[in-house]
Amino acid sequence: MKYFFSSIALGAMVSFSACQSGNKENTTQQTEQQAAADPHAHAGAQPTAQQAPAMAKDPAKSIPEFTFYKVKSGIGFSKADIPANRNTAFILFDPSCGHCQHEASLLAKNYAKVKDVNIYFVSMNDPALMASFLETFAKELVDKPNVEVLYDRNQQFIQKFHVPVQFPANYIYGADGQLKNSWDGEKEIGYILAEYSK
């Protein structure tokens, strides 16, 4: 089962390569092909609702329960750890995605305008690839109390939050934990700053 789940996650990651996943039909076909090719899966087995984890087709209307891991320390981070009484932005990203790097850089240059927003960069990539992301592309965000890079070791984001079409994918939740806005792909920095602080 563990190996089957890994093939599902690998299929999701393949679909996100080059900052874009293509259409959902191709993603489903790739996932099914990889699952069928997995030697640890039952021969000829097709994914079923019981075998495969559910993927979130629509953005979560409120912040779901989750456990991610801080890249720097490896310490677990959950919904209970989010500081209250402020907006929270989750950015699903790939450290090698040029659009993700650009957005992080723009947020860093405008830190004074987002210093009161919880900002969480979340990725399913290898933590070693994520470890220097902020230092390389967004130095001004390093060690800020409201900014964290989180490793999604168990692929909970695509199960509980949403499966986006493009990176970076932004999800803005209000102080009440309810979704205010979300979008896939790169946006103009003025738009991002306005949505983060609404």
Q: Residue-averaged pLDDT, rounded?
A: 82
Quick one: how many beta strands?
7
Helix vs. strand class: alpha/beta
Principal-axis shape: globular
Helix count, DSSP H or I runs of 4 or more residues:
8
Query: Biggest sheet: strands, sense, closure?
Result: 7 strands, mixed
Outline the low-pLDDT stretches.
1-18, 21-50
CATH topology of the largest domain, anyone?
Glutaredoxin
* Fraction in beta strands: 15-25%
Oligomeric state of shown chains: single chain
The CATH architecture of the largest domain can be given as: 3-Layer(aba) Sandwich
Any idea what the CATH superfamily of the largest domain is called?
Glutaredoxin
- Following the backbone from N to C, one meets helices and strands in this order, namely HHEEEHHEHHEHEEH
- Give the N-to-C terminal Cα separation: 43 Å
Integer count of domains: 2
The portion of residues assigned to helices is: 25-40%
CATH class call of the largest domain = Alpha Beta
Strand order of the largest sheet: 2-1-5-4-3-6-7
Radius of gyration: 17 Å
